[in-house]
Amino acid sequence: MTKLSFLDLVNVVEGETSADAIRRVGPLAAHAEAHGYHRYWIAEHHGMEGVAAAATSLIIAEAGRATSRMRIGSGGIMLPNHSPLVIAEQFGTLDALFPGRVDLGLGRAPGADSRVARALRRDFMTEAEEFPRNVVELRAHFTGDPDLGVLAVPGRGADIEMWILGSSLFGAQLAAALGMPYAFASHFAPDQLDEALMIYRRDFRPSARLREPYAAAALSAVAADTTAEAEYIASSMMQNFVALRTGRPGKLPPPVENYVASLPPSASAMLGHVLQCSAFGSVEDVARGIARFIARTQVDEVIVHSPAFDPDARLKSVALIADAFRAVEAGQTTAPA
């Protein structure tokens, strides 16, 4: 049965601080758990005024503190920014605090620009090339491979579910080769979604942790009482995408009426392309979008990305998306022909 999970970028809205965004993580995670979401992931970013998830493992701990059953973790940790030992220690600590609930999704992108790379004292080009080797090394820290010559304490023996994340074919190939679960970032980079999933399933090699391929994909979604209201709320996300793609990233702006209609054709086309994998509208609208997405991808898990300027509107959207998903699972909604 397909599962529903949640991706939180810890967006900072206009008029507020990163501290405000961080303080909302616990209540939002608890709300997601109450509505049946399977896991709650935080994505690492650096040097971005509108994203407050730089200290990713600390944010994950806040989500863990506020919940008791739901899986928590990273979607993802950008491994080129870190040594495998440090990440093994951090996630070993999380497993000690929240045993059996911790995921470690790993990405190859830096989650930052060249200025941040210099501040982090990392050579991203070299580290990106070393990504496969570092994933294997990180996994060995958890299993306690004596050939490493160093113990991750905490870390050795931790029950961590490791994932490979990606927005291109590289991650699919690596996840298949290593026998790891795979998640595709189709909420912002949909172009290679279908090919990546095909390659992952075709080339998957069983591992000690995973005998069959297990794939997830991300969907941008906003649900409200009416289609018009949801599209209004989603205009904050749309503005954010346009600002990012035009080199003007910032905090999440308030929604505006008829935003898409106000855009020049080039920006409207770009936004439509980026949001290929999205579902905005009433519960019925979102249910049809989820059903269409599952029918297309056959994923084991749908990971929802659902930011909103108004915290209350976001909480309501999270609940209504869960209602839409249950309708799909119950067979009450099918993908449109």
UniProtKB/TrEMBL annotation:
It comes from the Bacteria. Residues 13-292 form the Luciferase-like domain. SUPFAM superfamilies: Bacterial luciferase-like (SSF51679). InterPro entries: Bact_Lucif_Oxidored, CmoO-like, Luciferase-like_dom, Luciferase-like_sf. Gene3D superfamilies: Luciferase-like domain. CDD domains: Flavin_utilizing_monoxygenases. Signal peptide: none annotated. NCBIfam families: oxido_grp_1 (TIGR03558). To bacterial alkanal monooxygenase alpha and beta chains. This is Luciferase family oxidoreductase group 1. The lineage of its organism: Bacteria, Pseudomonadati, Pseudomonadota, Alphaproteobacteria, Sphingomonadales.
